[in-house]
Write a structure and sequence with these properties.
It contains 9 helices and 12 strands. By secondary structure, it is of the alpha/beta class. The protein has 2 domains: 3-208, 4-Layer Sandwich (Metallo-beta-lactamase, Chain A); 219-286. The strands form 2 sheets. Strands 1-2-3-4-5-6-7 form a 7-stranded mixed sheet, covered by helices on one side. Strands 8-9-10-11-12 form a 5-stranded mixed sheet, with helices on one face. α4 (90-101) links the parallel β6 (83-87) and β7 (119-121). The radius of gyration is 19 Å and the shape is globular.
């Protein structure tokens, strides 16, 4: 059963029990625009049932990135005339996820069941549908293909997994294991330059821009703390072990309250990625 959250008269956010991943339905005069389509068939089929109630064609499906929990439901929601939009590097993201999580499987789902993008872009793409204007732009950090979608008329930003939130009122850290911490920091700062009144994260409840300021602080403190702890003699495994011991979310954000959900694991993977980034950087500097 999907959770349903009416954002305004023209938009509903649906959220899955699976890590609270979001799918947003936007109504125009005679069409639907869908942003992200979830992972499991049960959720995709339930979204398809929700779609029927609108009695409108799905004109566009936009995937904020191509991790499986944001794009596998495309096949349940796309109509014959639907156009799917994603970043040009979407397949690189899907392949990396598969190689890390399921390296022995040829595919998460049968390739013939995937609905691939009809439109791809690199840096920016302007979209208009029956008077509603959307600005799509690259927002890397969580993954190389992450994008943001700014609904101009409503001043709502769909940030994908560049922004994360929980459903229990606790703070959720930014997550860059699949991407790059420096790019994530730049993307978060860019979000703060957008005149958005509401941000729809890839997972969890909508947030205000003030949440992004905490994300920036978390990343800045993480990078500074790691720099202080780094020694040239460390291997990547040794450095990661030290980061896990010395850098807790509470140290990075004094007001942080631990959530029992996903924050500890995401923070640990952020530290693992940080160790890898530092080792790679200093090895290249020595060459």
């Amino acid at each position: 059963m999907l959770f349903e959250d009416k954002i305004n008269n023209d938009m509903i956010r649906y959220s899955s029990k699976y890590v609270y991943v979001n799918s947003s339905f936007i109504e125009t005069k005679s069409n639907l625009i869908i942003i992200d389509t979830m992972l499991f068939p049960r959720d995709g089929k339930e979204l398809a049932e929700k779609k029927k109630a609108y009695n409108k064609d799905v004109r566009f499906i936009i995937n904020t990135h191509w991790h499986s929990d944001h794009c596998y439901g495309n096949r349940f929601l796309a109509d014959e005339k639907s156009e799917i939009i994603a970043h040009k590097d979407h397949l690189k993201t899907l392949a990396r996820e598969k190689n890390v999580i399921k390296p022995d499987r040829k595919s998460f789902v049968k390739q013939k069941n995937l609905r691939y993008p009809d439109i791809t872009f690199d840096k920016k793409y302007d979209l208009e549908c029956e008077g509603e204007k959307f600005k799509l732009f690259s927002l890397p950090g969580h993954s190389d293909d992450s994008i943001g979608i700014f609904w101009v008329g409503e001043k709502i930003l769909f940030a994908g997994d560049t922004v994360l939130n929980s459903n229990d009122g606790h703070y959720s850290v930014p997550y860059f294991f699949w991407g790059n911490s420096s790019e994530m920091l730049i993307s978060l700062k860019n979000i703060l330059q957008i005149n958005s009144q509401l941000i729809i994260p890839g997972h969890g409840m909508p947030v205000k821009p003030d949440k992004i300021k905490k994300d920036v602080l978390y990343l800045k403190n993480l990078k500074l703390s790691a720099k202080e702890l780094y020694r040239e003699s460390y291997s990547e495994e040794e450095f990661f072990a030290i980061l896990k011991k010395e850098i807790t979310p509470e140290k990075l954000l004094p007001e942080f309250k631990r959530s029992d959900f996903w924050v500890p694991r995401m923070h640990e993977l952020n530290l693992k990625k940080t160790a890898s980034e530092f080792i790679d950087y200093f090895r290249k500097a020595d060459q």
